[in-house]
Write a structure and sequence with these properties.
Elements (H helix, E strand, L loop, with lengths): L6 H24 L8 E2 L2 E2 L15 H13 L2 H13 L1 H6 L7 H16 L2 H15 L2 E2 L4 E2 L5 E2 L2 E2 L3 E3 L2 H15 L3 H16 L10 E4 L6 E5 L11 H18 L2 H16 L22 H17 L5 H18 L28 H14 L8
Antiparallel strand pairs: 1-2, 3-4, 5-6, 7-8, 8-9
Helix pairs in contact: 1-13, 2-3, 2-5, 2-13, 3-5, 5-6, 5-7, 7-8, 7-9, 9-10, 9-11, 10-11, 11-12, 11-13
């Protein structure tokens, strides 16, 4: 993307990356034996313990370390990244706590390690996780089952979620690695199901769709982390944009690129004037909550669309990505090296008790988007 940036934007990206790197050189040492999810009062929490080790975000700290190793070549980032990778072995041993989000956990850690260094342990871990994810595929409904047991009191053996579009990368990678089409067929069938049942005519996306697990017939939709059923959870829209682009990059199937563009057009048309993204595009005006993670993830997906767009369309997608990232950099980043975490005003769910705090995947995707702009990201997905 570097060749398509103005000189002013090139300078801005480099300056912003300098700020990230200078801060992370300090923060990494404080957090070297942690797997953070969020920061509280400027200090990262730690999800590396036995009770939290299966948490779905546990790959993003390691992913940040690999992206910074890609950028700087500093081996300290590799050392810290491998701490997360090795700690996640507890999940395989426990087994019962694992879920559909193993792609989020092992693509930015083990598979990133293997891709960057050829580490055979990274390959083994990635293939282990891919096999577990493939086992969640429902062949009648042609979807990968979300969660385990119940979700908010609902039995969910037939539930699928838009987030899982990002986890498909683990199966595509395994298919390429093993030359085994089984690992390619499952994610493509899931993506086809998502295209049919998740993406609405206006380009917005359902967060959760329930299917009868015995027949594959759609039975209900749910609002998930958004405001309500039928609303427009923004992080769900961003997962759809980036997720369909991942499927397009791995398969070349035109329908996936078209789907990513449809959702992107809807997202772009709803970006507020200040460029800062709410939790839900259709939530009430008050209380108003932001979710900076949705902006960072969407920016990554928009840059990927721009990569495959022609000269006429590219400015639409790249310009929107830059608008989101400029807004985050200008007013939603904490550059103080004495405080952990970078991206502020991130929100996990509209219904949660607390909102607008730092979340690790917001930091990760913000960094990844910046590196994409200068063609220096480690392709994780």
């Amino acid at each position: 993307m570097l060749q398509y940036l103005s000189q002013e934007d090139q300078k801005w990206v480099q300056e912003t990356l300098r700020k990230v790197t200078e801060k992370m050189e300090v923060v990494r040492e404080r957090a070297q034996k942690k797997i953070p999810f969020t920061s509280k009062n400027g200090v990262y929490d730690d999800h590396s313990g036995e009770k939290e080790i299966n948490w779905w975000t546990n790959g993003f700290w390691g992913g940040m370390m690999w992206q910074l190793y890609q950028k700087t070549g500093d081996p300290r980032y590799m050392e810290i990244a491998r701490y997360s990778e090795e700690a996640l072995d507890q999940c395989f041993e426990q087994f019962m706590g694992l879920h559909h989000d193993v792609g989020f956990m092992w693509m930015p850690t083990a598979v990133a390690d293997y891709r960057k260094t050829g580490n055979p342990d990274g390959r083994r871990r990635g293939l282990h996780a891919a096999t577990l994810l493939a086992g969640r595929f429902n062949p009648v409904g042609r979807f990968i089952r979300a969660w385990n047991d119940e979700w908010h009191g609902h039995v969910n053996t037939g539930w699928a979620i838009i987030d899982c579009m990002m986890n498909l990368s683990l199966l595509y990678w395994a298919s390429d690695e093993l030359d085994d089409p089984r690992f390619r067929q499952n994610p493509m069938m899931h993506a086809d199901t998502a295209l049919e049942h998740f993406i609405r005519p206006d380009g917005s996306a359902n967060p959760i769709v329930e299917f009868d697990p015995e027949t594959g017939i759609e039975t209900a939709t749910y609002g998930g982390q958004g405001y309500e059923n039928g609303s427009s959870w923004t992080r769900g829209q961003s997962w759809a944009i980036y997720g369909f682009m991942i499927s397009y990059r791995h398969t070349g199937k035109q329908e996936y690129l078209d789907a990513a563009k449809r959702v992107a057009h809807y997202f772009i048309s709803n970006i507020p004037e200040n460029g800062l993204i709410p939790i839900d595009f259709r939530m009430p005006k008050e209380p108003y909550y932001e979710d900076s993670t949705a902006a960072a993830i969407a920016a990554c997906g928009l840059i990927e669309i721009a990569r495959f767009a022609d000269d006429l369309q590219r400015p639409l997608y790249l310009g929107a990505a830059l608008r989101l990232l400029h807004a985050l950099s200008a007013s939603r980043c904490d550059w103080d090296p004495e405080r952990d975490g970078i991206l502020e005003k991130c929100s996990s769910s509209y219904a949660e008790e607390t909102h607008e705090y730092n979340i690790i995947y917001g930091d990760y995707y913000f960094l990844e988007a910046l590196l994409k702009l200068i063609d220096n990201d480690l392709w994780v997905w």
